Amino acid sequence: MRNDIAARARQIALTLTSWPSVTGSADEAGFAPKLARYLDQFDEVWTTTIPKDPRSNVFALKRGRSRQTIVLTGHFDVVPVNDYGALEPLAFSAERLLPEIVARLRRTGENPLALADFESGEFLPGRGLLDMKAGLAAGLAAMEAYTGDASLLFLGVADEEERSAGARAAAPMLLQVAKEHDLDIALVINLDAISDQGDGAVGRSVALGSVGKQLITAFVIGKETHACYPEDGANAAYLAAELLTEFELAPELAETSGAEHAAPPTALHAKDLKSGYNVTTPAQSWLYWNTLQHRRSAGEVFDISLMLGRRAMARAARKLTRDIPVMSYAEVAARVPHHDVARIAAEVAAHDGLDLPERAKLVTSAVWQASGLAGPAVVMGFGSIPYPAVALSDGTLEDAIVAACAAHGLASLRYFPGISDMSFLGQASGDLSACAANTPIWGSSFTMPQSAGYPCINIGPWGRDYHHWQERLHAPYAFDTLPRVLLSVIDAVAKGR
Distance between CA atoms of 155 and 143, rounded to whole angstroms? Predict the structure, then answer.
């Protein structure tokens, strides 16, 4: 079986990619049952529902002679395909899509690297093939080929691309599954892809942990005035601009661990809240930034963010000749009766069509209004689900994993550089209490499980431009090398325990 593993990995990958599973679609909801039927060769296969959600996760167990278990996991949802344009009907058909993409790139000349990749014969296109169905396929091919003593548990989860509902539901479920099936989980291997715009040296890596993520928000309250008398007020759009200047790529929030750098913050949204044109200055603005962490707690991230906000408003104060206080959401909410804050959050949570940052904005705005405070001011908080950073804590286990991967030419990273479901399955670092206190929608629009707490690493395929119509997978590594790496790591962990 090990001799046929590359062909099998390719077959599984192309099959899974051919099944549409755009996040939030009916196809995604139907994917887990369909995958469960596809995996009927394993000893036990079942699906588990996600609370208050039409989607489900899928488990498949290959029971060995030992209780010791390695989990192979990843998400099966994919981002939308409308960016393919005229090629959208072929987005899930990798082999049919390839010559059409080559023809398009030759015609337009828009991405010479992508054209060279595709013409090399080593890269395959297709929505979700790189992110991350080729990783799932490598895990499943390795499971089929494995003949050792350990037990192997596959876990496919929904919704990684939006709110990680699948992984958040799976975290407590994984503990329950281990107990019910008498399994001793020694390691969780996430199978997600790494982007590499170079020669693949970074993509061919094992990540011994994963970055964390916090979404920092700022609700800016200005003081309206007629545009002919701007000195009489405080323009919320200008205050927002000072915040944008201060936060964008701020080195204070770019954490470094050795030679590895978490990306600095960047603005994902910045908009004043005027509904139309008039000559009155904007009264309010709403902004948020993506921030990544290695070891910092939510409290440390928030303290740095408050410092940056106050530095920006100190500049604004010199120009406007008035103070602009920067407050935390928790400070503002403390001025409002708890039952009123809870009611506001519950009412906003009932709006299913709103994303989490938009809900955070509405709650912050309503709580500010109820507080009796007056602007100008800035209220800072968090606007979405936190992703805790995770890292291995067992040096012996780490050494065994690194050695097994190095034998196949893989380098090692301390942190997987992209946001991932590892945050909910691995050994999380950092206290989230500051996040809980300053996230207006915590407990109302989402629930945060305790991390499963298992040793968790990432070994997946590599490629380029995922979430783009030029998404492409380095096929020789994904289909041939990767399943063999997974088998080596499984063997190393099984022998070491």
Answer: 12
